[in-house]
Amino acid sequence: MREYSTKNTKSFSAKRIDASANRLTIIKTARKLFKEKGPDTSLSEIAKAAKVSRATLYRNFQDKSDLVFALMLHNMEELNAFAQGMEQDEHEFFILIKKTAELQLHYQGLIPYLPESTDDLNNSIINLMKGPVKRAKERGILMENFDPLTDSALIVTMLGSATLQALEVNLEGMMNRAVEIVFKGISPKS
């Protein structure tokens, strides 16, 4: 029979902090590997690179779809933090669209791994764009009939699609050119 000590060397909150740190490490490692190696990166590769056991990885994410969804939510959290720092910038909407397109550029190959329902992600993007769209309209640098829901998603999709056929060595250049073309087309002043 196993004896259990009443003196725990590690408190419950310390264990929770460790678990939270492991989860974040896995997400950041997956983000890096998916960006470098593509969507076919295995969960075993991610666990090894994150220096966690496969059991730890599976305790946090039941499968690749679960990890990809967590990664996308993590990207949205970072995008939200980025957007909050941009509120006073006259061109915040355009900068935010470009940043969103860059994320799509690097992670669009993961879309097939997302679960069927991505309402949380979609709602995050919609809520993220509302303020910048409103302020851009007030500043007169965005068409009045621009819809934050459909038009923001359309622009990001267009920018992501523009880079699908680009050579890997020129992805950034193709995306920047697509941004330039799209922005000139939606600006009320040419």
From TrEMBL:
Top-level taxon in the UniProt lineage: Bacteria
InterPro entries named in the record: Homeodomain-like_sf, HTH-type_TetR-like_transc_reg, HTH_TetR
Keywords: DNA-binding, Transcription, Transcription regulation
DNA-binding region: 42-61
Domain HTH tetR-type intervals: 20-79
GO molecular function: DNA-binding transcription factor activity; transcription cis-regulatory region binding
Gene3D superfamilies per the UniProt record, alphabetical: Tetracycline Repressor, domain 2
PANTHER family: HTH-TYPE TRANSCRIPTIONAL REGULATOR BETI, HTH-TYPE TRANSCRIPTIONAL REGULATOR RUTR
Protein name per its UniProtKB record: Transcriptional regulator, TetR family
Organism annotation: Lishizhenia tianjinensis
